[in-house]
Write a sequence for this structure.
């Protein structure tokens, strides 16, 4: 079953084509990395999948239906996500959990994301890495079938990053599908079952990390794919 289906998707903002004919299919249970330079269309792709914006052309389907119909089954971490500063970690995770038809026990979510000892802290008292773990907790609390993670390990140190992916992989082992955007090619090669490369709003490569690397390495393949693409327009988003 395809959890994500994007066929010929275009999204324009005035004269800017943020995505320009993206085709993407993600099967149930896969962990897929989305790579691309700034302005390639990664963030817009996530917004389309979350029904935050609508395509100018093409079709987007999530979990077999429209993105809007799937909201209760999708967990997300977005670069643009804001957090209320004066609530505690426990209060915020509990509040977000109430928005989902099914949710994990609060104590379990806090433990899995390493936030048990931070539960009574306000958001403003958290470090950058702790905020990222809180965003993961908010994404996991609704027992999602699909996790959409936009640069999820930004601001994390090596140990925190390792712990993060252990938790994300555990979610995948429990049946969740994961699509994540990253600029870290080592992370993509280590974590992902498949790598999808975007450039100038288009899909330019799709395969396993090993297949894309060929006889070389993923970094060389990535640079060859993206350097060959036209320069993105000013104002185009990632």
């Amino acid at each position: 079953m395809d959890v994500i289906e994007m066929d010929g998707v275009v999204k324009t903002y005035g004269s800017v084509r943020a995505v320009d004919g993206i085709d993407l299919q993600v099967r149930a249970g896969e962990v897929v990395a989305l790579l691309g330079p700034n302005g390639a269309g990664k963030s817009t792709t996530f917004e389309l999948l979350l029904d935050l914006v609508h395509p100018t052309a093409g079709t987007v389907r999530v979990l077999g239906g429209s993105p809007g119909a799937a909201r209760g089954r999708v967990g997300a971490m977005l670069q643009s996500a804001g957090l209320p500063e004066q609530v505690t970690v426990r209060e915020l995770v509990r509040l977000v959990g109430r928005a989902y038809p099914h949710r994990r026990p609060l104590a379990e979510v806090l433990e899995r994301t390493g936030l048990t000892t931070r539960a009574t802290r306000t958001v403003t008292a958290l470090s950058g890495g702790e905020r990222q773990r809180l965003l993961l907790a908010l994404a996991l609390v609704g027992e999602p079938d699909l996790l959409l993670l936009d640069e999820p390990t930004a601001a994390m140190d090596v140990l925190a990053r390792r712990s993060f992916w252990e938790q994300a992989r555990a979610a995948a082992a429990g049946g969740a599908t994961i699509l994540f955007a990253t600029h870290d090619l080592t992370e993509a090669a280590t974590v992902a079952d498949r790598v999808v490369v975007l450039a100038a709003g288009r899909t330019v490569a799709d395969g396993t990390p090993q297949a894309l690397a060929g006889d070389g390495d993923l970094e060389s393949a990535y640079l060859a794919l993206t350097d060959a693409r036209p320069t993105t327009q000013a104002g185009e988003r990632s």
DSSP finds eight helices and nine strands in the chain.
